[in-house]
Amino acid sequence: MWEDLARAFCLMLVIEGILPFLYPQRWRQAVATLARVDDRRLRTMGLVSMLIGAGLLLWLR
Known about the structure:
The chain crosses the membrane at residues 6-23, 44-60. The chain contains three helices and no strands.
């Protein structure tokens, strides 16, 4: 299980690094825009993202 978790973490780092590598200016603008979003909306987006990810994992298994 720990190996799978480590692989998933490494894959997350690769995926998260694609946008700043390819489009640094757009990525910087997106981060600046996210900094202005209120906490409740960010938490909602995070929750929805986690639920979709967990649902997709269950579906793929």
